């Protein structure tokens, strides 16, 4: 399962941005080379994104540990534990999701569907809006405000805010769950 997740992460990093770069070239006249030159990186939006992702991940983790979620048939922490990831795998997967998914959804899809519908589609594609399992859908309810704010934040702070926040959110949750798993094993 670990190897499959790492391959999926690599695909997310390398393939998901392709439509976004095609759209960037068409709508913004920004090429892949210009994007990778990192000329538009600004410290404050990245710092705000990292801080926002960190705080939201901690809040989400606390909420997800409420007794309500004990009855969820497929818990997020159990899924991550089954992947048998190491801490650096979690960081790698967070980087892949932060870059790949944010470029695809915020730069590409959001242009066509707007921030609200794109956010809902993003949560639904991840499986967090499940009409047959309302308890599991509560993960989506927790995550939806975060994704709303990433989507809106991109207009104010730029894509690097969204990338940084998404990366940090995933990295914090992976780090907590992986270290908790290792503590129980050792």
Fraction of residues in helix: over 70%
**Termini distance?**
21 Å
Q: Point out poorly predicted stretches.
A: none
Strand tally, please? 0
Q: Number of helical segments?
A: 8
Q: Rg, please? A: 17 Å
Structural class: mainly alpha
Please summarize the sheet with the most strands: none
Order of helices and strands: HHHHHHHH
Envelope shape: globular
Percent of residues in beta strands: under 5%
Mean pLDDT: 88
* Whole-number tally of structural domains: 1
Give a short synopsis of this structure.
The chain is mostly helical and 186 residues long. It has helices at residues 2-14, 17-27, 32-36, 43-64, 76-82, 87-125, 134-157, 159-185. 80% of the residues lie in helices and 0% in strands.
Question: Overview of this structure, please?
Answer:
The protein is 80% helix and 0% strand. The chain is an all-alpha fold. It has one domain (2-185). Helix 2 crosses helix 6 and helix 7 runs antiparallel to helix 8 (159-185). The chain is globular.
């Amino acid at each position: 399962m670990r190897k499959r997740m790492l391959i999926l992460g690599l695909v997310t990093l390398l393939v998901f941005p392709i439509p976004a770069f095609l759209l960037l070239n068409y709508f913004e006249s920004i090429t892949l080379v210009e994007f990778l030159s990192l000329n538009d990186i600004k410290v404050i939006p990245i710092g705000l994104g990292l801080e926002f992702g960190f705080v939201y991940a901690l809040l989400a983790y606390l909420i997800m540990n409420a007794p309500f979620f004990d009855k969820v048939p497929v818990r997020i922490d159990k899924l991550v534990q089954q992947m048998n990831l190491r801490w650096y795998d979690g960081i790698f997967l967070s980087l892949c999701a932060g870059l790949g998914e944010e470029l695809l959804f915020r730069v590409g899809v959001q242009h066509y569907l707007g921030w609200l519908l794109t956010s809902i589609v993003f949560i639904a594609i991840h499986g967090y809006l499940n009409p047959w399992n309302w308890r599991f859908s509560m993960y989506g309810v927790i995550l939806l405000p975060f994704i709303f704010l990433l989507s809106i934040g991109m207009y104010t702070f730029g894509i690097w805010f969204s990338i940084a926040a998404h990366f940090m959110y995933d990295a914090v949750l992976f780090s907590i769950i992986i270290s908790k798993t290792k503590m129980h094993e050792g």
